[in-house]
Amino acid sequence: MRFNLAMLPIVLVGLGMAQVVASVPADPQPDAHALVLSLAAIFVGMALALNLVIRLTIVRPIRRMASKAERISTGHFDEPPFDADAHDDLAALGASFNRMRYSLEKALHMIAQESRW
Protein backbone atom coordinates (compact mmCIF):
# COMPACT_ATOMS: atom_id res chain seq x y z
CA MET A 1 0.00 0.00 0.00
CA ARG A 2 1.41 3.42 -0.82
CA PHE A 3 1.37 6.28 1.66
CA ASN A 4 0.12 9.75 0.88
CA LEU A 5 -0.96 12.76 2.90
CA ALA A 6 -4.64 11.99 2.38
CA MET A 7 -4.38 8.93 4.61
CA LEU A 8 -5.68 9.11 8.15
CA PRO A 9 -3.67 7.57 11.01
CA ILE A 10 -5.49 5.03 13.14
CA VAL A 11 -4.08 3.74 16.43
CA LEU A 12 -4.58 0.03 17.10
CA VAL A 13 -4.03 -1.46 20.52
CA GLY A 14 -2.71 -4.99 20.46
CA LEU A 15 -1.50 -7.36 23.18
CA GLY A 16 -0.08 -5.52 26.14
CA MET A 17 0.66 -1.85 25.78
CA ALA A 18 2.16 -1.90 22.29
CA GLN A 19 0.69 0.54 19.83
CA VAL A 20 0.64 0.05 16.09
CA VAL A 21 -0.11 2.92 13.72
CA ALA A 22 -1.87 1.92 10.52
CA SER A 23 -2.97 4.06 7.62
CA VAL A 24 -6.34 3.86 5.91
CA PRO A 25 -7.09 5.90 2.78
CA ALA A 26 -9.42 8.82 3.50
CA ASP A 27 -11.35 8.32 0.24
CA PRO A 28 -10.59 5.19 -1.82
CA GLN A 29 -13.35 5.98 -4.34
CA PRO A 30 -11.52 8.41 -6.69
CA ASP A 31 -8.91 5.77 -7.57
CA ALA A 32 -11.60 3.18 -8.22
CA HIS A 33 -13.62 5.58 -10.37
CA ALA A 34 -10.56 6.54 -12.39
CA LEU A 35 -9.72 2.87 -12.93
CA VAL A 36 -13.25 2.03 -14.06
CA LEU A 37 -13.37 5.03 -16.40
CA SER A 38 -9.97 4.17 -17.85
CA LEU A 39 -10.98 0.56 -18.46
CA ALA A 40 -14.26 1.67 -20.02
CA ALA A 41 -12.43 4.08 -22.35
CA ILE A 42 -9.98 1.34 -23.37
CA PHE A 43 -12.86 -1.09 -23.98
CA VAL A 44 -14.79 1.42 -26.12
CA GLY A 45 -11.66 2.27 -28.10
CA MET A 46 -10.90 -1.40 -28.76
CA ALA A 47 -14.53 -2.06 -29.75
CA LEU A 48 -14.45 0.83 -32.25
CA ALA A 49 -11.14 -0.36 -33.70
CA LEU A 50 -12.45 -3.92 -34.03
CA ASN A 51 -15.62 -2.62 -35.69
CA LEU A 52 -13.55 -0.67 -38.22
CA VAL A 53 -11.34 -3.67 -39.02
CA ILE A 54 -14.34 -5.96 -39.48
CA ARG A 55 -16.11 -3.39 -41.65
CA LEU A 56 -13.09 -2.92 -43.93
CA THR A 57 -12.00 -6.56 -44.21
CA ILE A 58 -15.30 -8.46 -44.18
CA VAL A 59 -18.41 -6.33 -44.60
CA ARG A 60 -17.25 -4.09 -47.47
CA PRO A 61 -16.05 -6.96 -49.73
CA ILE A 62 -19.24 -8.93 -49.10
CA ARG A 63 -21.37 -5.89 -49.96
CA ARG A 64 -19.36 -5.36 -53.16
CA MET A 65 -19.87 -9.01 -54.09
CA ALA A 66 -23.61 -8.80 -53.36
CA SER A 67 -23.89 -5.72 -55.56
CA LYS A 68 -22.07 -7.49 -58.41
CA ALA A 69 -24.28 -10.58 -57.98
CA GLU A 70 -27.38 -8.38 -58.19
CA ARG A 71 -26.20 -6.76 -61.44
CA ILE A 72 -25.14 -10.08 -62.98
CA SER A 73 -28.48 -11.65 -62.04
CA THR A 74 -30.20 -9.03 -64.18
CA GLY A 75 -28.01 -9.86 -67.19
CA HIS A 76 -25.29 -7.22 -66.88
CA PHE A 77 -22.27 -9.37 -67.70
CA ASP A 78 -20.19 -6.29 -68.49
CA GLU A 79 -19.60 -5.95 -64.75
CA PRO A 80 -15.85 -6.31 -64.01
CA PRO A 81 -14.77 -9.42 -62.10
CA PHE A 82 -14.64 -9.36 -58.33
CA ASP A 83 -11.17 -8.26 -57.27
CA ALA A 84 -9.97 -9.42 -53.86
CA ASP A 85 -6.73 -7.93 -52.58
CA ALA A 86 -5.99 -10.54 -49.92
CA HIS A 87 -5.29 -14.27 -49.85
CA ASP A 88 -7.97 -15.32 -47.40
CA ASP A 89 -11.39 -16.97 -47.43
CA LEU A 90 -13.06 -13.90 -48.94
CA ALA A 91 -10.55 -13.93 -51.81
CA ALA A 92 -11.33 -17.62 -52.39
CA LEU A 93 -15.04 -16.80 -52.34
CA GLY A 94 -14.42 -14.00 -54.85
CA ALA A 95 -12.51 -16.36 -57.16
CA SER A 96 -15.38 -18.88 -56.98
CA PHE A 97 -17.83 -16.06 -57.68
CA ASN A 98 -15.85 -15.06 -60.79
CA ARG A 99 -15.76 -18.68 -62.05
CA MET A 100 -19.50 -18.98 -61.52
CA ARG A 101 -20.06 -15.71 -63.37
CA TYR A 102 -18.01 -16.82 -66.38
CA SER A 103 -19.70 -20.24 -66.43
CA LEU A 104 -23.13 -18.62 -66.29
CA GLU A 105 -22.24 -16.19 -69.06
CA LYS A 106 -20.88 -19.02 -71.22
CA ALA A 107 -23.95 -21.20 -70.60
CA LEU A 108 -26.31 -18.38 -71.52
CA HIS A 109 -24.38 -17.72 -74.74
CA MET A 110 -24.53 -21.44 -75.61
CA ILE A 111 -28.30 -21.48 -74.98
CA ALA A 112 -28.71 -18.38 -77.13
CA GLN A 113 -26.72 -19.99 -79.98
CA GLU A 114 -28.71 -23.24 -79.73
CA SER A 115 -32.00 -21.35 -79.91
CA ARG A 116 -30.90 -19.63 -83.14
CA TRP A 117 -30.54 -22.94 -84.99
From TrEMBL:
Record CDD domains: HAMP (cd06225)
Record InterPro entries: HAMP_dom
SUPFAM superfamilies: HAMP domain-like
Name the record gives this protein: HAMP domain-containing protein
Keyword terms: Membrane, Transmembrane, Transmembrane helix
Domain HAMP: 56-109
Domain of life: Bacteria
Organism, as annotated: Ramlibacter aurantiacus
PROSITE patterns: HAMP
Pfam families reported in the protein's UniProt record: HAMP
TM stretches of this protein: 32-54
GO biological process, one term: signal transduction
Any one GO CC term of the record: membrane
Protein's UniProt keywords contain Cell membrane: no
